[in-house]
Amino acid sequence: MKKNRPGSITLRITLWSALILIALELLTFHMFRFVSGSILEKTVRGYLLSSVNENTDKIKFYNADNEEGSEDTDNMRIRYRSGWLEIDDDFLDEINDVQSALYTSDGSMLYGKNPIARQMEDETFISSRIYKYKSAPDSNWYVYDRKLSGQGLGDLWIRGVVTLSSEEMQLHDIIRTAMFFVPVLLLAGIIGCWMIARQALYPVRRIEKTVSEITQGKDLNRRIEVTGIDRELYDLATAFNSMFDRLEHSFETEQQFTSDASHELRTPMAVIMAQTELALEKPRTQDQYRQALEVIRRQGRQMNTLIASMLDYTRLELRPENYPLSDLDYTELVNALADDMSLIKYKNIVLSAQIAEGVRIQGNDFLLERAIRNLIDNAYKYGKENGNILVKLCLTSENMAECHIIDDGSGIPQDEIDHIFDRFYRGASYKSGRVPGSGLGLSIVLKIAEIHKGTIRAESSDKAGESGSTFILSIPVSNSPISNA
Predict the structure, then answer these.
(1) Residue 394 lies in a domain
(2) Smallest Cα–Cα separation from 339: which of 348, 330, 328, 352?
(3) Which helix (H) or strand (E) holds 78?
(4) What is the CATH number of the domain that holds 107?
(5) How confident is the model at residue 483, as a pLDDT?
(6) Which of residues 218 and 140 earns the better pLDDT score?
(7) Which helix (H) or strand (E) holds 318?
(8) Contact 355, 485 (CB under 8 A)
């Protein structure tokens, strides 16, 4: 069944960006409308207050016996009670569309302009205040009633009015213009988001293309180019490259394992097949059959040892993380191992130990025991009759814990020392049939040393009268005092 192809990240990013842009523009639009309306009302109220307050100073009352008044002949004079009112000639001026009129307390207009005077006939004067007045469903006004004070003016009011229609129309024009340009800007923003997302994800497509080519092809040496990309994608590409390194290493190890297994198993299998065919070729005596079975059993054991060693080596090479390191009492481990292996008594060889106290390292007890046991086994195999083996643990001035395995056997030819840690390398002793082995023991020791960030080396002398070999396994110590044993 064909699986549905997942959606595009570029499209998803673009859609989310579009939703965010729409939300931001709607929020900005409403905030603009609210703020603009507030500023508009505040501005109109300011104009209204300023204009009416200025007009209060343009009205003066004179008694009937005071016929002089102002020298300005353009001023308006109105008879009022026992005197007369003089109103400045610019009282009627409209400043910012504010119009003012002079009223008595009973609502009678004495002078001025009020375009909504008829609609406001029932609007009585209560106190000095600013309020809104709707003269029609679509006509809003601000009204400011201001009570006058002073001699002869106590019963008079100024009512200033200003319409909001022109300002509201300006606001509506701005909103209509915005409603036209906002979708255009939104579309441009969405296109820009799509282009940015596509450009940002281009390295991802490049990584995907390279990974697909590596997966479908046979060039396991190829890697993803990590230059010129952002940190997150750099980390992703680096992780892919590390994975490919491990896959390539695993593939090469598997090929090497298959090749080595085929090569190493060919000889014992050939011997087994030949011995089997020889035994079945014609009737044999009981002793002849027994001899054939002994050969087959010996070769079978050799194959079993070889396969087990190969599996151990491959496991160490491919899965070193399965052997975590921890704080380890190296003194106790080497001491116990030397005590146990001193009981072997192979070839009447005597094993002794010189172990420094208090040596601690970061290590894996299982692997280190395997390494030292392999080295001691080799010392027994290549040791001489009634010989000696010394296991020595000491600390060096370089803060390294060195485990020396010293024997007095036949030694190692100088032309073989550089190869003894190679996989499946066997020296002259094995080829002569004197010493059995898989050829992987020292390779496993080398791998264990590498896992512990240490080293393994061999020393031997081919001088006349000198013999024996020394293997030195060096491991970094952890917080141990430096001393020598």
Answers:
(1) yes
(2) 352
(3) strand 76-80
(4) 3.30.450
(5) 41
(6) 140
(7) helix 286-318
(8) yes
